[in-house]
Model the fold of this input.
Amino acid sequence: MLDFLSTVGRVIIAFLVATGRLVLFTANALFHLVTPPYFPRLILKQMIDIGYYSLPVVGLTTVFSGMVLALQSYTGFARFSAEGAVSAVVVLSMTRELGPVLAGLMVAGRIGAAMAAEIGTMRVTEQIDALVTLSTNPMKYLVVPRILAGLTMLPILVLVGDIIGVFGGYIISIYKLGFNPATYLTKTYNYLEFMDVFSGLVKAAVFGFIIALMGCYNGYNSKGGAQGVGAATTNAVVSSSILILIFNYIITELFFSR
Amino acid sequence: MTSAAPKIQLMNVHKRFGHKVVLDGLNLTVGKGESVVVIGGSGTGKSVMLKSVLGLLTPERGSIKIDGEEVIGLGLAARERVMMKFGMLFQGGALFDSLKVWENVAFGLIQGRKMERAKARDIAFEKLAQVGLTAEVGELSPAELSGGMQKRVGLARAIAASPEIIFFDEPTTGLDPIMADVINDLIIKCVKELGVSALSITHDMASARKIADRIAMIYKGKIIWDGPVADIDKAGNPYVDQFIHGRAEGPIKMEVKV
Ligand SMILES: Nc1ncnc2c1ncn2[C@@H]1O[C@H](COP(=O)(O)OP(=O)(O)OP(=O)(O)O)[C@@H](O)[C@H]1O
Ligand SMILES: [Mg+2]
Done:
């Protein structure tokens, strides 16, 4: 019994320590986020990495999601003779939920992993120590550019993804389900409210922050050679994906529950 | 700050990892313009000692003074100011693999000292030439170099910003005997002509005898012998004798099973 209790205690303490470290790291990152100097070259490089090179992945996921949404809601709603709601379902699901969540998860896999691997390798090969001895703050040099890029690029990616997703739904609705293009577009436009898109973009910014933060945090604290870097990479992707789903709920609650 | 204060002074420094005691009351001073070499077995804490002075590791107890200023627990800005005095050659090189060789060497000048790129680039190539590397090498990435070349790039980076204090962690390991001697001469030149205070670690006794004004031997986390290089052969210390003659038998027991 005592054994069991001490195990539970150890797990709880380990969890609290890990949380505390993450909170400290986040506070430290936020402090450096708002204090100069900045490294414009590095910020630009990260923005291109996250924003530009993620476009194909995000485009593909959202276009197929839009198509599936149209198809599913059509066949589903046909049971209630409510086929007319397809355009509304597509545009609302896309902007509020699927755009940000799918883009977030895809980018977490693509970018979060790369960040953790790169920073983790720098940690275990003492490159981060070398930065310090060259009077360069690793938080400013490595972490801030990535977080800034995540914060700004994810909303842009999601906006593009929203448009592509709605377009995917449109294609299926017009060419497969036989909707009238003009009515479909008018309905799409009429149903859409500013808040739908805006909440999605807020989600995207938060997800971008989470992805970059978890990528950097896990890389920064990795130890023990190639194996440690591998573990950091896995942890970065898993933890940011879970956090994205949790925060997705929280933000939805904040925006839409009243 | 009195001029009499030694450049570096470690007093009663303790550092451990978990239960493993690495530094156990270490005392060492390096005077201005002096070259001190620390010798000692593998894993005795030589690199940990250097990292403690640089603030990359924080000792639990003791005092470390640079120019009479206590540096343990120094704040962010003060730490960066003190770092400006240092150049460090890491045992494993710790070159930034995302940058070209010359950008590595110029890093401290561009980021730390805000020098223009073009000017820093000229200095970088000059330093590369001093360690026997051509301009072509400067355009390569560190991954394309041999181990010995990487070591020399690390050396060029350490001396590039003309620091007051340079740490060399095994500067000649992995170099051929001729290149090792070129590097020895370079270190001597830094100390004699530029007035740099140097703290080096080496297993290479020929190099130690050549570059040192003073030699100190570390064993079990303490300095057990410290004296002018001329006295090393008549130190009358069995540990030192065993080490400099490289004998398997003696008071230092290697934990190996044969
Ligand atoms: N970050 C760390 N975490 C845990 N233990 C460490 C860490 N760094 C060093 N150690 C331990 O401290 C001891 C001293 O390491 P250090 O790197 O200073 O050895 P060294 O004297 O430089 O050896 P070598 O001559 O082989 O380079 C080693 O036993 C090592 O296992
Ligand atoms: Mg070492």
The radius of gyration of chain A is 22 Å.
